[in-house]
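Following up on my earlier message about cytidine-5'-triphosphate. Here are the inputs again, as you asked, copied directly from the submission form:
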Amino acid sequence: MFSGKNILLGITGGIAAYKTANLVRLFKKSGANVQVVMTPDSKEFITPLTLSTLSENPVYSVFSDDGTGEWNNHVELGLWADLFLIAPATANTIGKMANGICDNLLMATYLSAKCPVFFAPAMDLDMYTHSTTTQNIQQLIVNGDIIIDAKTGELASGLVGKGRMEEPENIFNFINEYLKDGLPLSGKKVLITAGPTYEQIDPVRFIGNNSSGKMGYELAEKAIRLGASVTLVSGPTHIEANTTIKKIEVRSASEMYDRVHENCNEADIIIVAAAVADYTPETPSENKLKKTDNNLQIHLKPTKDILASVGELKKDKQLLVGFALETDNEEENAKRKLVRKNLDFIVLNSLSNKGAGFGYDTNQITIIDKSNKVKNYELKSKSEVAVDIFNKIISLLK
Ligand code: CTP
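Thanks, got it. Here's what our run produced:
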């Protein structure tokens, strides 16, 4: 896929820069033309001589070389590239990319580039999860840049966590896949709901359910890998979301309803996977309820059906996916929900199989679409189930 392609490699000042020699070799061996642009600090980690020798091209890092009066034309470099890879991408460079700060040749080239831009973050774990980094990465994804996400492992600081640059072979394979097919959800906005909702009875008690949120979080993770930008409206869970996901935390069904409605107009694909409470206490007590010898009655009122309300507003171009958890007349009930809530397809969760549903890492689903096509799937990990669901989505987008 790389034969004859012009690849511009941007290297920034992180320890993972030493691995870029290997990246240049992989691209060169596969027939690509490679040029390298470095930030001044990255030269502390790998020498321009190594990279110019391997790339067989001069390496640029400053706007003009001393004394010659000539300038390194970043506009030309940006236009030359069929593909711009920034690896490693430090927190500093990611911050500049997200905010258009142009204080070195690499940044000027980034702002001049017209080609797809890939970036492979690398930094220490706390920098990676810092809210400013998270927001900057989200901004880049929204802008259309493609993340090759960092891995979890041992870091230069000696700490273990997320922040290791993806290995050169995997970066190479990732881009190879992209060149083959393009990322199927590039430029798409995906909105996902996940987890349970908690309906407050009094300040210390609530009505909840056993949903772990795993299915929704797996879907969010897959959507990112497929090139989408993802907003995840999540009820209370213990799961940490990938930092590239825009996560909105909620507690109650009514809060989830509001956040979903604030975000659904923009979304291309909406997946409603949350286990939303169907009822909520009519008048939650302001004070902690006291124990008495009598039975306690709590009056519940129905919550608003989030999925059905989104179904009513759904635009032609939007794709809406719901879930159904059934214990009897499974297919028939799911089909009814599909029609009533105006869905493109419904994912029927079976509770009759051991290992499927709430709390498990596995799930067994049936997908029913609006043309009444029914497909049964095996018991699989929730991560694999997420792949099946996105394969269905991608087939409907075509
Ligand atoms: N759902 C929702 N808002 C609610 C209730 C459900 O968005 N207040 C969504 C769920 O996220 C799921 C789908 O509707 O995608 C079906 O949920 P389910 O609990 O199976 O069905 P209900 O519509 O609640 O119907 P029932 O409880 O009668 O089966």
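One observation from looking it over: The longest strand covers residues 319-326. Hope that helps, and feel free to reply on this thread.
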